[in-house]
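Internal tracking record. Fields below are filled automatically when a chain is submitted to the structure queue. Please do not edit lines marked as system-generated. If the sequence contains nonstandard residues, flag them in the REMARKS field before resubmitting.
Queue: standard
Priority: normal
Entity type: single polypeptide chain
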Amino acid sequence: MLLTLFSGCEDFLERDPEDKISNDNLLSDLEGVTYALVGCYNDLCDGNYYRTNWQVINELRGGNVKVKASLTSGYIERFIPFYGFGLESDDHEVENIYEHLYQVLAEANNILEVLDEIPDATEAQRDHIRGELLTIRAMVHFDLLRMFTYPYDYQANAQHHGIVVNTSTPDVLSKPSRSSVYESYKQIVTDLEEAIGLLNDDEKHGPTRKMWIGPDVAKALMARVCLYKQDWNGAIEYSTHLIEDATYGLVPGDMLASGYESGSPTQETIWILDNSQDVSESLSKFMGVPDIADKTELAATGDLLSLYSENDYRRDLLVEFSGDTVSLKYRSSGNIESDIELFRLAEMYLIRAEAYARIGKEVQARADLQTIRQRANPAAAQPSFSGEELIQEILTEKRRELAFEGHLFYDLKRTGSDIVREDCNATENHNVTYPSFRYVFPIPYDELMANDNMEQTEGYN
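SYSTEM-GENERATED OUTPUT FOLLOWS
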């Protein structure tokens, strides 16, 4: 979208964006603000976020992948405490994740606070940038909630500890406390509602459109947020916006593998992160198909592989590499990683299917479920499930469809499900019974020491 809003966008995309907003001159004009905005996008694709940690940690914890038995590299060691649900508050990776996500919030807020003062920007340009930043802010707050808190319904009216909500640049001496989960979600929804009204949808085509945030991205995120906060009608409303938009369509099942191999967004893609800014392998090295590394760190579990029938086209995305089964969803070529899909149409069908099932509209739920089942296997029989069995089948289909994309663990967590991993080589806690503090990341020790208003999650020191 930025390509249509700012002339010369290609020029600034070729330059190194400013990731750490500390220079008043940078935010004094439209060009500088645009550099800073691109820096926010790049930080979404950091190794501590969607470039590596998000997918790897959650696929390990959910049970879709395991550490390879033949692994000799020590690089995977940083993920072992996550895999075995043995985290402590002084875990370095937890601290890195926490710090990085709040850094992204600070960057977004810094730009938002000066946006109205930019002299050479039109109102439409300011509105669109504000919409992008509000969407980024909502997504980061939402992901912090998923990591560091219990699900929405853990306590009545979601009054349990949420996160520190950051909607402005904090004073260096401030010591904020955690908002409730209810208040945290309220801010996320407020940001997304405003973003949807601000974002410009004039440009619906172009090779780079799906790399930028437009109203469709905000609506897709809202559908996901509504699902997590059990706003079933909201989940239906926002997912339907995308499903009924002729801009999008499901990729035919027999073209799924070639779609990923092409390296380009497909008709199914709603938002994709540009993963080309670093010359180094990341997700492909862990659970995909790298072109330089001779092996990967992780492999698909038997638990996941057993879910696919022989006629399921999604089996074509499960390929053999160096003696183990990995995913074609992540590849590298010339040491450049494939882009990362964050939202695609199939998820919207599955969100709507679950939401329909939760409110008793089972005919509609089965229809959406069948759309995804039949895309994967044209001979799939019409589902006849009902009640809790229907909901579980939708969740299982979601596991098949979104495998390796970092959803399974949080679906188990938000539905209050136990973690059961048969094909698991963690050294402890193969299975975890809900509820348990182990479903929640600890607040980092350094944060607790620096802020005496911060409260640790019960169960951690």
